[in-house]
Amino acid sequence: MKLLGYKRIYGIIRLKSGLRIGMSKDQMAIGDVDNPVIRNPLTEEPYIPGSSLKGKMRYLLEWHLGGDYISRSTERNVYVPDDPKDPVGRIFGSAPSNEAQRRIAQKRGPTRLLVRDAYLTPESKRALEAMTARGGYLTEVKQEVFIPRIGGNANPRTAERVPAGAEFAFEIVYRVMDTGDGGQTDRENFKHVQKALELLQLDGLGGYISRGYGQVELDYRVEDK
């Protein structure tokens, strides 16, 4: 097995609607918003964790391919076929839980897809900082109302989100490995990575997508390294 090279995907994630990727509320103070977004602890700026982006890409691709990926997954664990050439297993990796799976993982090789955390572009950072000058907090707080079906009393709730128009710089790296085939399998599987990015733009990222949040547009390039 040999590393032949990389395909680097880089560009901009542009928010077409508000984005909410949540964080723990364990350290909330009185008066804080109900559903805070995740932030860089050093800068307090919102960002998109690579794990959120990679997880949603895998979720959408598995639903696109269908079959055992969906029917044999469990509540907490994804399903990976016992085939070293399985595209989802090669692209996104898996955690072997027994000796048989470890032998398959050795044949499959390392996870091909590396997804970095995505941070605000300098232009978007300046735009959001202008919000703080007007009393904001680098984000917007959206007021919503839940109406119980019995009783009908409106229950207000708030959700923090990154406003539409903000842009994040992102980078994804895809490894091309020679597993005895000269890298052909990984080169062919790259189409699945591009399909996952297409599906992401049709579906969404983060929470509350069915309520209009998380619509994104990607502007990216691919280069061979």
Spell out the blueprint of helices and strands.
Blueprint: E1 2-15, H1 50-65, H2 68-71, H3 87-92, H4 99-108, E2 113-115, E3 119-120, H5 122-133, E4 140-146, E5 155-161, E6 167-178, H6 184-202, E7 216-224
Antiparallel strand pairs: 1-6, 1-7, 2-6, 3-6, 4-5
Question: How would you summarize this macromolecular structure in one to three sentences?
Answer:
The chain is of the alpha+beta class and 225 residues long.
Features:
6 helices; five-stranded antiparallel beta sheet; single chain; alpha+beta; 225 residues
Portion of residues in beta strands equals 15-25%
Main sheet summary: 5 strands, antiparallel
Radius of gyration: 20 Å
Shape from CA axes? globular
State the helix count: 6
Question: Order of SSEs, N→C?
Answer: EHHHHEEHEEEHE
Mean of all residue-level pLDDT scores: 89
Relative helix content: 25-40%
How would you classify the helix and strand content by structural class? alpha+beta
Uncertain regions spanning at least 5 consecutive residues: none
How far apart the termini lie comes to 18 Å
How many E strands?
7
Written overview of the protein:
The relative contact order is 0.28. The two termini are 18 Å apart. The chain is 30% helix and 24% strand. It has 225 residues and is α+β, with helices and mostly antiparallel strands. The strands form 2 sheets. Strands 1, 2, 3, 6 and 7 form a 5-stranded antiparallel beta sheet that branches. Strands 4-5 form a two-stranded antiparallel sheet. The longest helix is centred in the C-terminal third of the chain and has 19 residues, at 184-202.
